[in-house]
TrEMBL record:
Pfam families attached to this UniProt entry: GFO_IDH_MocA
Organism: Galerina marginata (strain CBS 339.88)
Source lineage: Eukaryota, Fungi, Dikarya, Basidiomycota, Agaricomycotina
SUPFAM superfamilies according to UniProt: Glyceraldehyde-3-phosphate dehydrogenase-like, C-terminal domain, NAD(P)-binding Rossmann-fold domains
Listed Gene3D superfamilies: Dihydrodipicolinate Reductase, domain 2 (3.30.360.10), NAD(P)-binding Rossmann-like Domain (3.40.50.720)
Protein name, as recorded: Gfo/Idh/MocA-like oxidoreductase N-terminal domain-containing protein
Entry superkingdom: Eukaryota
GO molecular function: nucleotide binding; oxidoreductase activity
Gfo/Idh/MocA-like oxidoreductase N-terminal domain location: 53-165
GO cellular component, one term: cytoplasm
GO biological process: NADPH regeneration
UniProt cross-references to PANTHER family, sorted A to Z: BINDING ROSSMANN FOLD OXIDOREDUCTASE, PUTATIVE (AFU_ORTHOLOGUE AFUA_3G11930)-RELATED, NAD(P)-BINDING ROSSMANN-FOLD SUPERFAMILY PROTEIN-RELATED
Amino acid sequence: MAELKKLNVLMCGTGEYTTGWTGSGASTSDKKIGVVALTLFDLRRREKVDHLAMVGVNGKKFPAIREHLEKNIAGAYKDMDVSFEEFPKDGLVDPESYKTAINQMKSGEAVIIFTPDSTHFSIALYAIERGLHVLITKPATKTLSDHNTLIEAAKKHNVVCFVEHHKRFDPVYSDAKAKAATLGEFNFFNAWMSQPKSQLETFREWAGKDSDISYYLSSHHIDICCWILQDIAIPTRVIASAATGIATSEPYNCVPQTEDTITLMVDWESVRSKTHRGTAVYTASWTAPLKAGIHSAQHWYYMAEKGDITVDQAHRGYDVTVDDTGKAWINPFYMKYSPSESGHFDGQRGYGYISIEKFIDAVRSVNAGLTQPSQYDKTGLPTIRNTVLTTAILNAGRISLDEKRPVGIKKDGEQWILE
Ligand SMILES: NC(=O)c1ccc[n+]([C@@H]2O[C@H](COP(=O)([O-])OP(=O)(O)OC[C@H]3O[C@@H](n4cnc5c(N)ncnc54)[C@H](O)[C@@H]3O)[C@@H](O)[C@H]2O)c1
């Protein structure tokens, strides 16, 4: 049996998803101690990973980040080593520090990217070209051509490249995919995902400038829909519509081009039948009401020839009411932060954790010569190749809003392109 070696990992981005630390202190969302670093610290305790590093832009943030991780992770769970190497070092500010960090790595090691949407592509390509395996948060890239470039680069350098679409590991969503496969031709899909208006403060740095709410939230359910329809139908045309006026007004005052709520309407064509066509509507908003008892509203409806599926992942039959803050619907199936009976971290079955562990397992298996990166394309895992239609729809949606026209999606040889 080949030996599965412990993996060295570089985390790119030191923000809310990585550490739970935002520019204005500990996050007030449902990820107060983050997801990526916590999962990797626990995987180090479980002897799957070894040396950990973290790269951001502003090295001055690290003392506060370390204090936050010491107090809330090392102080909360038994046997948790929260040490990591930092870049940029010595309190320097350097947006290209990821190159310094990557240049020190050996091929076969791994990079996990949770940085602003517009930076994913250049960081991922730089890492792949140096023989490193890469996990990129959603949206993988903002354009379909960049996504296609990453597919080719990962193939050329024979590395694992996954997109961190953790909802594929939610037991309800993966079961729903299996059920949908028995329901015949696709007819209609409708998804809603939203976060409260207060997020416009959290996202002030990039909202409407670097990315939009469709890329940020609809990427989740567009990917789930593409995954469900993988062998059933293909998308052919996207037309987008946006509601505006809240984000750009007091007290948020986002830049004038910021949309509040974006809807993409997508035509789908059956791959098996000449007559069956379907419609999907994906809506995302960051101007939802405050104090709704949930951080992200998220529900969808799927209808096919022989039946339908309804999912509400914001309300999972578990709510907690506290005098000061009122009622809240909790989702420990994503990240369970309460410790085990022994005092250790106990969230290994959460789909936020599983999503990262699956990537680490795939990389260790490839490094041990047990599997090839291309094998993962044949599974339901969110490889860069398996997620190309998600980016095609998101990119087409952005073009449709900017150019006020429908945008076609089609296959040109082996590659998907927009028209
Ligand atoms: N926060 C969430 O709940 C969540 C969930 C899933 C996916 N994501 C995705 O994760 C990404 C980042 O999200 P976040 O919420 O952690 O954001 P954040 O704004 O809290 O953090 C972004 C981090 O990226 C760093 N960064 C920016 N440019 C960089 C560069 N050139 N090199 C290295 N680091 C750089 C910043 O210093 C910061 O630490 C986004 O693409 C987002 O869509 C976020």
